[in-house]
User: Which sequence fits this backbone?
DNA sequence: CTGTTAGCGCATTCAC
DNA sequence: GTGAATGCGCTAACAG
C-alpha cells in the first residue's frame, strides 16, 4: 500500500541500506548513486516512516517544549524562540526535527503526563518553560521523571524555573527575586508607603520569588511586610481587576499596586479607572515581564523586562547541543527595570 | 538496558501479548491478570516505546496543530483550545494522545515541512489554524500534501482558513469578509468618510477577506475604494504604528483607521497619541479578533469578536472524531461587532 | 563506497 | 482468556 524504503531501493537499483544512508546523510555515498536515490524518492513520493526509523535507531527527532499556558504571550514568546532554534537542520533524518509545544495548563499532573509521553516517544530533548509548582510530592515525582529522561539520553533544559539538582537538567532561571525587589525599591524611592501586591498563583516558584523580592525591599526600609495587602490569583486580567477592587476596599489610601505580571497589571489599571483613580497621579501601577502590549498601555506600564526570547533561544540551542551548558549547569538571567508612565511620585 | 514489554511480561508471569492487551485495553483480560501486569509495570517503571508501538500498529497518537505565530495570542488561544480537546483520554496506548503545536512562522515552506514531519510520524490528525498564503504554487503543493495525509488516514481539519476542496479536509472558516464589512459599515454610519485601512500581510486569505469586506462596505456607500489609504504589514504593533504615521502623512484629514487586528490597532493608537490626535474625538480606531487585552486598551477597542476558543475546540473534537463533521465538510463561523470607546462620531 | 544480515519493541494474527 | 509466532519499516553492524 504505502511506499517503503525497499520500494525506493528497488527503483533506484540499490540496497535498502544505501537509501537509508542517502536519506540520513551520515555516511559517504557516491554522488551519482545519491542522485538516483533522490530521484526515486521523488518519483515515488516516498516519506520516511518516523516510528520505524526511531525504533531502529533507538532515537527520535522529536523535541518537546512544555509551557504552562500557550495562550499567554509570556509562553508563546518563549515557545516560538525555542522552536526557531530547533526547527532547522541538524536532525537525523532529512535534517529536520519536529519541535512540539505541549500545553500543561499549569497542572502538575499534565506536566508529568506530557513528560511521560515524550519519554515514550524517546524525545531527543525537552525544554520546560515557566515556574514550577512547589508541592513536595510533585517535586519528587518530577525529579524522578527528569532523572529518567536524562538517563535515557534526552537532554533536559529548564527555562524560567529553578534548577532541579541531581537530575542532569540544565537550568536557565530568571532572577524574579531581584526583579521584584527592584520594582518595589523604585516605588519606595518615589515615596510610596502603602503598596498593594497582586501575586500570581500560590505554590509556584515564580510567584514566591517575585513576592520575596517585594518583601525584601519593604523590609530594608523597615516597613511592615504588608501581608495583608497581598492577594493571589492566576496570571490574567480578571485577577488584576478583582484583586484591585479588593485592595481598594481594604486600604483606600493605597498609592501603588505591584502586579504579578503585565497582564494582571492591565486588569488592575481597568479597575482603578472604574474606581475613578488616575494613574499614576492617584495610584501607581507596575507589572512584570514587559510583554509586547505593555508599552502601548495608557499610561505605558512600568515593568521588569525579562529577555524571554533570548533566554528561550539559548535554552533551545543548549537542548540541541549547539551551545555549551553554563558552568554548573545553571545560569541566572536578570531582568531590567523599565520605568514608564504608570508609576509616579506618591 | 531499558525496560521492555517482555520484562514486564516476565515479571508478571504472563506473555508479552497479554501485557500489550492490558496496556491498550482493547481486549478482554481477566481482572486478576490485569492487576498483576499493572503492578509489574509500576514496579519496573516501564514506559511504552512509542515508536515501536506505532510501527507495529501502523498508527500513532500524535496530533499536530499548525499555527502561524505561536507568540501571537490569536494562535495561542486557538492552540490551547484544540489541545484541551485532544489531550484527554481516547488514544490507543495508555489513553493519552500527544498534541503538539508546530510554529510555521507564516512560512509556506515550513508549513509543508511540518506537514511532512507529521506525515512521517503517521500523525492521527492535524489541525491547521490561521489563514493560508495565496500563492498558486504553494497552494498546489499544499493540496497535494493534504490529499496524501487524508489518504493515509490522518484526519485534517482547517480552522480559520478557507476550505481546501478535493482534499478530504474539514474546514471551519471565519467570516472575515462579513466582519470587515460590519466594521466599516459601523464607521460609515458614524459619519466617517476618510478611513485608513491597515491590512495584514499580503497574499494571505485572512488579509484579503477582511480587506474585501471593508471595500464592499465602501462601495455600497458609493465611496471610492480608497486603495491609496490601504497599507500592508505583519500582524504586529510596529506595523500599526508605522502605517498610522504614513496614513496621517498621506491624508491628514483622516477621521478613522481600521486595523488588520487588535495588535495592529494598538500600535495605531500609540502613533495617534504621539501625533497628538485624540481617540475617538479626532480619529476613531477599530481592530479585529477581540483579543483579551483589547477591552483594557484606553479607550477600549471597537473590534470584531471571533469565537477563537470555541471554534478551535470544535476543530479539535472533529479531529478526534468526537464530533460530527459539518455538512459538506465546511462551516463558516461568524464574528460579532463589538462597539467600544475607540470609535465615535466623525 | 555498497550489499547482506540481523534485530529494534511491540501489536496482532492464529491456535489453544 | 491466554500464549506462540510473525512482521511492521528501518538502521547498524559487518563484510566485501
Assistant:
Amino acid at each position: 500500500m504505502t511506499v517503503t524504503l525497499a520500494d525506493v531501493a528497488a527503483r533506484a537499483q540499490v540496497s535498502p541500506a544505501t537509501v537509508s544512508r542517502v536519506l540520513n546523510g551520515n555516511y559517504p555515498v557516491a554522488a551519482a548513486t545519491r542522485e538516483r536515490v533522490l530521484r526515486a524518492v521523488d518519483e515515488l513520493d516516498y516519506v520516511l516512516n518516523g516510528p520505524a526509523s526511531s525504533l531502529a535507531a533507538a532515537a527520535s527527532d522529536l523535541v518537546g517544549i512544555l509551557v504552562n499556558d500557550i495562550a499567554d504571550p509570556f509562553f508563546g514568546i518563549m515557545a516560538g524562540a525555542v522552536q526557531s532554534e530547533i526547527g532547522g537542520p541538524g536532525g537525523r533524518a532529512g535534517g529536520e526535527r519536529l519541535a512540539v509545544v505541549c500545553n500543561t495548563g499549569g497542572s502538575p499532573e499534565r506536566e508529568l503526563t506530557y513528560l511521560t509521553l515524550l519519554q515514550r516517544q524517546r524525545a531527543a530533548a525537552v525544554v520546560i518553560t515557566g515556574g514550577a509548582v512547589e508541592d513536595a510530592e510533585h517535586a519528587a515525582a518530577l525529579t524522578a521523571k527528569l532523572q529518567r529522561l536524562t538517563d535515557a539520553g534526552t537532554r533536559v533544559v529548564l527555562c524560567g524555573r529553578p534548577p532541579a539538582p541531581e537530575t542532569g537538567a540544565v537550568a536557565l532561571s530568571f532572577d524574579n527575586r531581584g526583579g521584584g525587589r527592584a520594582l518595589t525599591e523604585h516605588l519606595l524611592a518615589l515615596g510610596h508607603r502603602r503598596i498593594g501586591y497582586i501575586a500570581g498563583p500560590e505554590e509556584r516558584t515564580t510567584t514566591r520569588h517575585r513576592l520575596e523580592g517585594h518583601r525584601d525591599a519593604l523590609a530594608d526600609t523597615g516597613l511592615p511586610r504588608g501581608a495583608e495587602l497581598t492577594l493571589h490569583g492566576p496570571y490574567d486580567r480578571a485577577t488584576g481587576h478583582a484583586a484591585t477592587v479588593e485592595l481598594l476596599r481594604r486600604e483606600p489610601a493605597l498609592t501603588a499596586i505591584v502586579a504579578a505580571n503585565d497582564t494582571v497589571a492591565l486588569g488592575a489599571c481597568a479597575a482603578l479607572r472604574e474606581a475613578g483613580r488616575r494613574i499614576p497621579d492617584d495610584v501607581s501601577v507596575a507589572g512584570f515581564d514587559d510583554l509586547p502590549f505593555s508599552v502601548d498601555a495608557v499610561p505605558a506600564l512600568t515593568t521588569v523586562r525579562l529577555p524571554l526570547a533570548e533566554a528561550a533561544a539559548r535554552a533551545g540551542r543548549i537542548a540541541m547541543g549547539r551551545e555549551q551548558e553554563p558552568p554548573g549547569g545553571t545560569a541566572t538571567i536578570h531582568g531590567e527595570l523599565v520605568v514608564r508612565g504608570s508609576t509616579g511620585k506618591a
User: Anything to note?
Assistant: The longest strand of chain A covers residues 62-67.
